[in-house]
Amino acid sequence: MKQFLKISNEVAEALAANKPVVALESTIISHGMPYPQNVETALTVEKIIRERGAIPATIAIINGMLTVGCSEQEIDYLGRKGLEVTKVSRRDIPFIVAKMTDGATTVAATMYIASLAGIKVFATGGIGGVHRGAEKTMDISADLDELAQTPVMVVCAGAKSILDIGLTLECLETRGVAVVGYKTEDMPAFYTQKSGFKVDYRLDSAEEIARAFYCKNAVGLKGGILVANPIPDEYSMDSDYINNNIEEAVKEAEKLGIHGKETTPYLLDKIQKLTAGQSLESNIQLVYNNARLASDIAIELSKM
Ligand code: PSU
Ligand code: MN
After folding, report:
1. Collapsed DSSP state (helix, strand, coil) of residue 47
2. CB 106 near ligand 1, within 6 Å
3. Rounded to 5 degrees, what angle do the CA atoms 27, 56, 179 make?
């Protein structure tokens, strides 16, 4: 495994000294936001994590190497190339490594690579889940199965209502994955603080969340925990406005016959266009918010 794993000096030293490290994904850079906001956001997230007292580790595949701790140049490259960089989920990893090419890693692939490096906490925006209409299409993100088997805690702002949030929660329950609400009982819906669904556990401090994860490992349970951190009030969007736009994006995707791994990037892009960039600002702010909480959790975990 070590053969194809490249950990930056900064991250390797932090891990060896049991310092807090926060993993970050790269699909959000290449496929989740437009250039140049994607690069600005990725670099600012790293800065926020450092200021908070943890070490950031942006993860991607570069020249066939599973790279943990991308450099500023690599982040810039992934952001500029955008959709030209292959979106890599778990199943895609070996093919991109074999071709010695580049890949932007999803939540699933980032979790897997983070776990190879020994990183336990990961911050992102939103996770993949059960798509609307999955009763017929079976379109369920590999992120959910990864959460069931890989011991990494994922801090997100819930899931966009491009997904069926109720079915996503059912799937997580079946897989033994708990959803923790940070200071809330409500499952957030990315752009808004509430989805109409409840989380499994409400915890009010980073320390309690770290302890739950520590205990999960200590009792021999594999897999991760999903931490749902609602978007800060000042950046949350009007739920009718955003949901109408999401509705339109989903209809358009159906009409165009978009399916498989193209679905999520198509919907993310379409929603940004429909809301004339309004949703992008919310998206950026919630990622910063998740980076802060993930740093605090990683710091608490490093003391246990
Ligand atoms: N949801 C978002 N923003 C994102 C993604 C999902 O709000 O950037 C990305 C993440 O990388 C996630 C992936 O892991 O899309 C899920 O893709 P799929 O549904 O194809 O598994
Ligand atoms: Mn899918």
Report:
1. helix
2. yes
3. 65
Q: Is the CB of 117 under 6 A from ligand 1?
A: no
Q: Which residue's entry shows tokens 């669904």?
A: 197
pLDDT at 15: 98
| DSSP annotation string for 176-204 | T--EEEES-SBPPBTTBS--S-B-SEEE-
Tell me the two tokens of residue 179: 């959803």
- The alpha carbon of 139 and the centre of ligand 2 are apart by a number of angstroms equal to 5
**Cis, peptide link before residue 94, omega less than 30° from 0:** no
- Residues tagged active-site: 25, 160
Both tokens of residue 43? 């670099």
With the most atoms of ligand 1 within 8 angstroms of its CB, the residue from 87, 127, 130, 279 to mutate is 127
What global pTM score does this model have?
Answer: 0.97
Res 277: pLDDT: 79
Residue 82 alpha carbon to ligand 1 centre in Å: 14
Long-range residue pairs from 48-51, CB within 8 A, at least 24 positions apart, any chain: 48/288, 48/291, 48/292, 48/295, 49/22, 49/123, 49/291, 49/294, 49/295
> Is 139's C-beta closer than 6 angstroms to any atom of ligand 1?
no
Whether 195 lines ligand 1, by a CB cut-off of 6 Å, is no
Q: Is the pLDDT of residue 1 over 70?
A: no
Measured between alpha carbons, how far is 287 from 26 in angstroms, rounded to an integer?
13
φ/ψ of 83, rounded to 5, equals -65, -15
Helices (H) and strands (E) in the chain, counts: 13, 11
* Cα 168 to ligand 2 centre (Å): 12
CA atoms in the 13 A half-sphere facing the CB of 227 = 33
198: tokens are: 């409840």
Nearest-Å Rg of the Cα atoms of the chain is 18
